Amino acid sequence: MLTTSMASLADEIKQEIGNDSFSAGESHARLLQLIEELKLAVETPTETILRLIYQPPENAALRTVVDLDIFSLLVNSEKPGGISATDLSQKTKAERELIIRLMRVMTSLGLCVSPEPEIYQATDKAIAMTQPIGRDGVPCIYDLTLPALSKLPEYLREHNYINPEEYSTSPMQWAVGKSQFEWLAENKSHQTRFNSYMSSRRDGKPSWYNVYPIDRLTAGAVNHADAIFLVDIGGNQGHDLGKLHAQYPSLPGRLILQDLPKILSKVNKPGIECMSYSFLDPQPIKNARTYYFRAIFHDWPDRICRKILLNTISAMNPEYSRIIIVDFVLPDTKVPRMQAAMDIQMMSIGAGVERSKKQWHDLLTSVGLKITGIWNCNPAMESVIEVVPLADSSEE
Ligand SMILES: C[S@@+](CC[C@H](N)C(=O)[O-])C[C@H]1O[C@@H](n2cnc3c(N)ncnc32)[C@H](O)[C@@H]1O
């Protein structure tokens, strides 16, 4: 019985690889899902449980290897056969025996290869580990989330398993004394890594305007020097807006980047105007064509999201302005693992939520907004949600 399901999964995998577009979008996501299913079919229940139990030490070893900058040493090594544990020890000042133990984990994770005992070579994954997504993402997310995640079961037990719904009493607040943005603001190096990770974590993936037909915004937009085409609210240091401007240098109207003052203090990007602003206050930019929020609402519980939305609605021209939200829309079944895990992470560090279509609908209608469309090119990726005030009847 089990063998039959393995064989049919293997057949489906073969077919999907035979599909010319297997490296792109939906087909790519389906292939990964099938591989996951095959792995579970092959593993015994005991093997599955042991694999899960031993994930935390893998992450701790990875965090240490990134700290020691070992991936850069592998990538930049000029020795054709690979770099030895002894060389790594000399260059990092970490004891050779420790290097060997850490590198066993890295090779088992497929982040480098070991063609001979105690010799290591870079792979494409090692190269990614030297770029912002790995170099900054690994320590950023580890240091930000682990203290709260390790205490989450205790928090939930002590709070009688209520669903965390207040940023100010989030599990992270309880465990660490701060929720995510206060914690980041307090430490410059954490904040710098966070900003770098934010700008890199979607590398190689389509941008929102490759998924969503941007002519829905450009057509009908007022085109004069003072008009505001798009406000990127909580846009960090403008990575999204910079790419939009590079792809569409002649959009009708101005592009405004809003975030907290500390985040914007050194931002200087051509074609983009910076404005310090907290979205917990009323939006000062009135009648923009687009109010754009990417990966903002998943940070916050419904009560605060409603506040942010009402602050935005107060600035909108209901017949003209649109809200564009880019965030995950969780499917009702078969939620991709990363999205399910991210939901628990957001719950821990600020009582945030990854939302299903129904949760988005309930949140948005509760403040007098409606969804006019949801666009997605890959179930593993964020969706683009277009939103207008309820009275507007431009739904298609
Ligand atoms: C998860 S990041 C998303 C950044 C960017 N939109 C993206 O998708 O890469 C959340 C952003 O919200 C900003 N933020 C947090 N609290 C804010 C507030 N009260 N007002 C404005 N921005 C805020 C953070 O500084 C951070 O840049």
TrEMBL record:
GO terms for molecular function: O-methyltransferase activity; protein dimerization activity. SUPFAM superfamilies: S-adenosyl-L-methionine-dependent methyltransferases, Winged helix' DNA-binding domain. Gene3D superfamilies: Vaccinia Virus protein VP39, Winged helix-like DNA-binding domain superfamily/Winged helix DNA-binding domain. Residues 174-369 form the O-methyltransferase C-terminal domain. This is O-methyltransferase domain-containing protein. Keywords: Methyltransferase, S-adenosyl-L-methionine, Transferase. Residues 60-126 form the O-methyltransferase dimerisation domain. PANTHER family: O-METHYLTRANSFERASE (AFU_ORTHOLOGUE AFUA_2G17820)-RELATED, PUTATIVE (AFU_ORTHOLOGUE AFUA_4G14580)-RELATED. The active site is at 298 (proton acceptor). GO terms for biological process: methylation; secondary metabolite biosynthetic process. InterPro entries: COMT-like, COMT_C, COMT_dimerisation, SAM-dependent_MTases_sf, WH-like_DNA-bd_sf, WH_DNA-bd_sf. The keyword Cell membrane does not apply. Signal peptide: none annotated. It comes from Penicillium malachiteum. Pfam families: Dimerisation, Methyltransf_2.
